[in-house]
Amino acid sequence: MSDVAEETRHRIETAGRAARAASKRLALLSRAEKDTALLTLADAVEAASATIVAANEEDLARGAAGGMSESLQDRLRMTPERVTQVAQALRDLAALPDPVGEVTRGNTLANGLQIKQVRVPMGVVGMIYEARPNVTVDAAGLGLKSGNAMILRGGSAAAATNAAIVEALRASYEQQELPADAVQLLDGGHDDVTALITARGLVDLVIPRGGAALIEAVVTGSSVPVIETGTGNVHVYVDRAADLDMALDITVNSKTHRPSVCNAAESLLVHADVAETFLPRVLTELAERGVVLHADERAAALAGGVATQPVTDEAWGTEFHGLEMSVGVVDSLDGAIAHIDGYSTHHTDCIVTEDRPAARTFAAQVDSAVVMINASTRFTDGGEFGFGAEIGISTQKLHARGPMALAELTTTKWIVDGDGQIR
Amino acid sequence: MSDVAEETRHRIETAGRAARAASKRLALLSRAEKDTALLTLADAVEAASATIVAANEEDLARGAAGGMSESLQDRLRMTPERVTQVAQALRDLAALPDPVGEVTRGNTLANGLQIKQVRVPMGVVGMIYEARPNVTVDAAGLGLKSGNAMILRGGSAAAATNAAIVEALRASYEQQELPADAVQLLDGGHDDVTALITARGLVDLVIPRGGAALIEAVVTGSSVPVIETGTGNVHVYVDRAADLDMALDITVNSKTHRPSVCNAAESLLVHADVAETFLPRVLTELAERGVVLHADERAAALAGGVATQPVTDEAWGTEFHGLEMSVGVVDSLDGAIAHIDGYSTHHTDCIVTEDRPAARTFAAQVDSAVVMINASTRFTDGGEFGFGAEIGISTQKLHARGPMALAELTTTKWIVDGDGQIR
């Protein structure tokens, strides 16, 4: 902490106090006021499309000059069509129910006290994320709908794009006579992050969203509450009682549908009883789709001529973010569960089986945010779950686990209504 | 972190792994099995009563020799009657519903996927607390009922008492052929705490329960998830529209019913319109009960002859833990809310009023875990709320806010049940 310059700490504290003041106004907005504001923000983002795209071209040119990969450039790119999409996401948020004010528990006590637990905004939420600029708009919109002021720290690769987006949003807030500090963008160096995650009392929650190194740094360095998101070393286990056609579809979809994201599968475990039938089929299919295969000895022997390389302990523990997969044979359901227990990041793990007791045991014993039974791991997603939006996928156990959306950006407050009760 | 001896870190990691193994068995116990185990533990604690009382006498003698205050000795003391009481608390837990397995949300998606969110144990919970040995039994019982293995670090003042209690509990677990590592006691030095709160991956949650310095040290030093508990700078605001008889009862009860605990009031704010009538009455009553009064100039002038000392900024910010109170006059409801916003620890704050809009505004704008309307602040308590037990009172916003009991010791897991869905 002491290595953060006084100027930086002062700047972050100023931002935190401005966010706190804004959050007090946001907390008191009605659903109708928030939805109107979201629709107006959407229009403002679309109206700023040319500016945002021009700023994005700066970022892209700098990235290309610095040797940024094509796939990262694609994640970073904002075309006019993508600007329209992110504006639409704000309009979609307006259509969702307001999480604030929901009564989550309540009771009248024997002494006549009426107690109720009500959802209220967190207050000030910090978000630290990497390249994709659509996250900037999503976070601002989710923040407004849940009544929170957002302090955003995007990746330096998207600095100009994020600045253009946030400028458009803040100008719109001002025009609407709402507090512009509902969304603030930090554009300083790494010290900004350090100051943000140690701003106790000023920031109620920090959500890091990005690679494992970013998340580790935030979790270890923070003294404010943090929700870990994202890292997914995801397993598919094909049980002895699996429907093997279904298992083939689920494995291929889980691995190849969008291999760069956190809910893509990284490891395949096959029960020994079906390995001889299933492995040649699935490995051939995976190899045809360009998947590099790391196989244990038993799986390699059943690869049906497909080239594999020996799987290492490191490979079992790796989230590849691409077309690679670790493959192994297990002798039992317990063996699969023990393997998953050892290597999973507890994001999503899947069993394919027609056997009820096996499914029940797997669901009970695999300690992950999402346990899939006979479904692709790609379904771990706020949109797929019907949340209408997503701010990340929590892999921790405190507060939120799995896809996080509006409700997860709130806390609760107890309101106790009496007529003079004393103890 | 680096200043923890290798031996200590190794010992804590061993404890963490043993707890993890135990937690896997606890997570699969049925409610009936857990309730039977709780009743058996209760009998074991009662059977060890003489041993526990003898150990407690050691602790008390050491404390008295070291100059421990009478009130702290009283908190530490375990008589045969108190042993019976803590055993009864275990039996009471057996009568409560099992939080594990509760379905908290669920839905069938358009594609036929059946998703449900189910309460599951956290896994391994660390608890760091100070003198009262009944917390040792409560924590063990709450842990068992919620399916968690507990790693306990009690205060050194209660070392012998806690060791005797945990020995009895562990022996009972073994006799029942349940894992004794469901409850472990750390008895090393301060390094044990440091190692525990940085044991990422081994400990799912740490709950510090004690004074502000303990909580600050844990929150700042930890890299595992933490729930802050307890510190309560609690306010009573007497509105211009208060029933002044009710306000008198609530103020006196909130301050004097049990002044050492966190839900006792520390500050009294009185609206200027009723100050002249109310202050002489309430200050006289408080003074008669031995409350030392810190008053602002306007309150002092209306003290009706009661001696007061000038209130300082420090006094407004102090949780006295005893018979002292800060008193001031405010000109408006907004003034009261602003004062509370500046000084409250956001534990519990109370308004006394017969005015509906005032109550509604206070409840909406005071950002505390519990907002009381016309009721003593002493009602912020898991037992009073009907939770049947309490592990602490959270003053943070993440995961749990206000009194914490069984549900707050659980997390959730999504189980997604499909028949071959892919994206």
UniProtKB/TrEMBL annotation, chains A, B:
* Keywords of the record: Amino-acid biosynthesis, Cytoplasm, NADP, Oxidoreductase, Proline biosynthesis
- Major place of residence: cytoplasm
EC class of the enzyme, as a word: oxidoreductase
> Where, subcellularly, is it found?
Cytoplasm
Q: Which GO terms describe its cellular component?
A: cytoplasm
Q: Which InterPro entries match?
A: Ald_DH/histidinol_DH, Ald_DH_C, Ald_DH_N, Aldehyde_DH_dom, G-glutamylP_reductase_CS, Glu-5-SA_DH, GPR_dom
Q: Which domain of life is it from?
A: Bacteria
Q: Which pathway does it take part in? A: Amino-acid biosynthesis; L-proline biosynthesis; L-glutamate 5-semialdehyde from L-glutamate: step 2/2
Q: Which family does it belong to?
A: Belongs to the gamma-glutamyl phosphate reductase family.
The entry's function note states: Catalyzes the NADPH-dependent reduction of L-glutamate 5-phosphate into L-glutamate 5-semialdehyde and phosphate. The product spontaneously undergoes cyclization to form 1-pyrroline-5-carboxylate.
HAMAP family (alphabetical)? ProA (MF_00412)
Q: What is this protein called?
A: Gamma-glutamyl phosphate reductase
| Source species | Dermacoccus nishinomiyaensis
Taxonomic placement: Bacteria, Bacillati, Actinomycetota, Actinomycetes, Micrococcales
Gene field: proA
